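[step 3/7] fold_predict: job queued, chain A
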Amino acid sequence: MARRKASGEETLEALYAGDFDDFVARRNDAAKELRDGGDDEAADRIKALKKPSRGAWAINQVSASEPKLRDALLDAGAKLRSAQEKLVAGSGDSAGLREAGERESAAVDGALEAARGVSEDAGAKLSPATLERVRKTLHAMALDEDVRRDFERHRLTTEHEAAAMGGLSLAGPAPAGKRKAENRPRDELKAAEAEAERLDARRLEAEREADEAREAAEGAKWELKRATRELDKVASAAKAARKRADDLRERTT
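[step 4/7] structure written:
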């Protein structure tokens, strides 16, 4: 049993560390191979995996191939999270939070440049909008346990927004004067921008699902053609065998 689980984990590892464009084909092949080997549970798990967005794929590649950058970002995020917790609890100060935030921002910048380079090397330059979503996802790891875990295992499937804790953002607490200066039009603008980003993320997810459906349909079409050719071949052979049997029967009667 342990060996079967390990096989599934290794397949998962290779799947997310592989190329972006043929993800669905490699996923389906991996699921079939596991099922043929008798590991239906792992096959079902692999088959259900969603194709990562282009930005999430780039982050996964950085996590898988740049362990120093990955560990630096995880460490900086943990220190920033600790600084925020201390400030909220009253045992920290804004200077400590600011310093931790600067370190975390530097780690994010390094990982972002690596993600940009990975994509360009793969012949798929990331758009400014995608790079911004990648940056937000890298920041999100400081305060979001699920995002951090998926990044550490390089298994992100979509981009994420940075969470907030105790009224604090990753940029630290806003000055009181600034908070008072925020008016309704600005709040409405922020809400509109957040809604636009949310809907854009849903659009990207829908596009990925449509791509998978198209690839699955193409695969089914090819399988139908193969099965039809096999049917014609067998039917022809069966017809010839039946004719031979009839001829032999006539000769013996």
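[step 5/7] annotate
Residues 216-253 form one domain.
The chain has three domains: 2-47, 54-163, 216-253.
exit 0
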